[in-house]
């Protein structure tokens, strides 16, 4: 006969977890808190804090999360400013004009960083992240194409967007949400991103633009934006199709300007109409802030801009969101001031140094083969060498998780679904010392993995890709 607790019922009742049961050591009431309904009464703030705090201990350690590109460390002064601005509504530019001014200054700083021909003509805005920024850029491409087609008296009902299959999942969402046919350039052999030749072959008169990724989430590599621009220039002269480029610089837009100034990818190329980046990735701000910039007003059709005055004053706005805190924008401005060109260069160079050294040490362990080595984004991917039949990258990922490391394992998309990799993102705050600890834990796990004789975990083992998700092969434009 099962034991029955006098207060909480039979063990089978507890198995359903209807309530949160608070340890009486807190010496506060209540001891039972509903899990999925509002409590009937209010409670002491310290009790509420402790309940939430204790549950959140089950989350992974953000500093050991080598899957995410998102910043997990910030200076206390930046956090203090964010706390001071948490209640400021970014959309209310009349009530918080100085916050709006800081947003404008950030846009001007990015315009100069990305070599706009005339930074005063650049239009841009902050967003909740690079995904929203990508949506806005895609909308501008579609609307610009549609307006031109209608002015020419041609049909404008079959837009398509060309991109590598390695693009972040937000581009598939854009195509789905806004009725644009996605045309994906597949991976081939050792080419893991878009090829200019293959991209041009997918273009036609209905192509609203081509997306080039500066820093692929799959392996950290830069796509050849300048070569793509040249190929589209040739296409324009041959066919008359004037197809713009959008650069998804979610990560690389805040790395290449400081570490690779000779790589031409930005507004120096006349065919680049717009660029987005994540302030909360290598922009070094806590989530979530992104940026979208257009080279001039002609690249952003005015009929996409709304003028709102009910909050006081005339506020032109281009966004998918409305209300959001100004804290992250203020933190971005603080970080720009705090680091400057030299500070960003030093931070990003340190990240790259850690990434390249860590990649080399992992390769020296023996069982692994590098796909990339961190010499572009401070990100690299690696896989198991041939002959490692007794284990999988998913086994390796799970073994590292036992020590708290979150290292994603995933397969590449078409036409390299046979390739299964692990990926490591080195962010600000991930030091050489932490990298040494990771290598030590990996070395410690390898003998056990080699002894297991057969793989224990496959692709269905709860692996996580963090931006490297496989695109939907049923998309009508999948090539």
TrEMBL record:
Record-given protein name: Glutamate decarboxylase
InterPro entries in UniProt: Glutamate_decarboxylase (IPR010107), PyrdxlP-dep_de-COase (IPR002129), PyrdxlP-dep_Trfase (IPR015424), PyrdxlP-dep_Trfase_major (IPR015421)
Species whose genome carries this gene: Wenjunlia vitaminophila
Modified residues (N6-(pyridoxal phosphate)lysine): 281
GO cellular component term of the entry, any: cytosol
GO biological process terms on file: L-glutamate catabolic process
Cofactor: pyridoxal 5'-phosphate
Family per record: Belongs to the group II decarboxylase family.
Matches recorded under CDD domains: DOPA_deC_like
Domain of life: Bacteria
Pfam families documented for this protein: Pyridoxal_deC (PF00282)
GO MF assignments: aromatic-L-amino-acid decarboxylase activity; glutamate decarboxylase activity; pyridoxal phosphate binding
Ranges of compositional bias, category Basic and acidic residues: 450-460
Disordered: annotated span: 450-479
Reaction catalyzed: L-glutamate + H(+) = 4-aminobutanoate + CO2
Gene3D superfamilies, A to Z: 3.90.1150.160, 4.10.280.50, Type I PLP-dependent aspartate aminotransferase-like (Major domain)
Keywords for this protein: Decarboxylase, Lyase, Pyridoxal phosphate
EC number: 4.1.1.15
